[in-house]
Amino acid sequence: MTSLSAVSIGALAAPAAAFAPPSRETPVRIRGLSYTVGAQGRRARATPILADVDLEIAPRQFVALVGPSGCGKSTLLNFLAGLLPPQAGSFSLGEQEQGRPRSVGYMFQQHGLLPWRTVQKNVELGLEMAGLPTAERADRAHAMLADMGLQGFEHHYPKEISGGMCQRVALARTLATQPDLLLMDEPFGALDAQTRALIHEMFSAYWETHRKTVLFVTHDLAEAVFLADRVLVMSARPGRIAADHAIDLPRPRRLEALRVDPHFHARVETLWQDIKTQSAVAMRGHA
């Protein structure tokens, strides 16, 4: 499966890990999360991917996660989505006011649209799986497509629209389920620079209105600074949080203004220095 519209999070049973009780104050809380792969044969060596990750994300906060390749960024998202059982540590995702577990939306780099479904029906997929009535599914999908600037393309198929438009459909599909927590794994990384800039503006405007809690993985430092309230830098493998930078640029943000803003460029440069340090550690480790 290459894309999920919504992921239902339940208690994860793992011998060395605990799913902590939900917290109304902090929708994401991670304590001592660790994960290791390999070491199945007698001579095999285990490879630690994450080690003692501690993290808290406040309600309605947009957090970007950057770091050298292979440091466990995507693995961390997979834990929060319930796709991997943690081997050590604990985490909680908070709860809704009614006490139910929070819903989670997960968006990947590839759009994963179903080619036999129209744009409208692709956006309705998560709502259909959730059992919403036909009319409500259609209304919600239509409104979300309008927010993404895709009016008039509801009855097209994925092969009939551009890659950037497909990615907007995938974003609409994820947001249509109205998740409390949005996990995004390099969702705009495969797009050309012009399309990516336009989607940055569109998604930033959506977030300004709806203020979802977001954990956003990217290798693009300028993207991280433009979108996020905080940028976390992960260490070389085994990954842990090496630095936590507050992004205090005023909102709403516009790319045209930030391109000539020295404060914006200073924050990107600070992140680059952190990434260079961690990448050098990673390269020495593989030498």
UniProtKB/TrEMBL annotation:
InterPro entries: AAA+_ATPase (IPR003593), ABC_transporter-like_ATP-bd (IPR003439), ABC_transporter-like_CS (IPR017871), ABC_transporter_ATP-bind (IPR050166), P-loop_NTPase (IPR027417). Coiled coil: none annotated. The keyword Transport applies. Residues 28-261 form the ABC transporter domain. SUPFAM superfamilies: P-loop containing nucleoside triphosphate hydrolases. GO terms for molecular function: ATP binding; ATP hydrolysis activity. Keywords: ATP-binding, Nucleotide-binding, Transport. CDD domains: ABC_NrtD_SsuB_transporters. Pfam families: ABC_tran (PF00005). This is ABC-type nitrate/sulfonate/bicarbonate transport system, ATPase component. The lineage of its organism: unclassified sequences, metagenomes, organismal metagenomes.
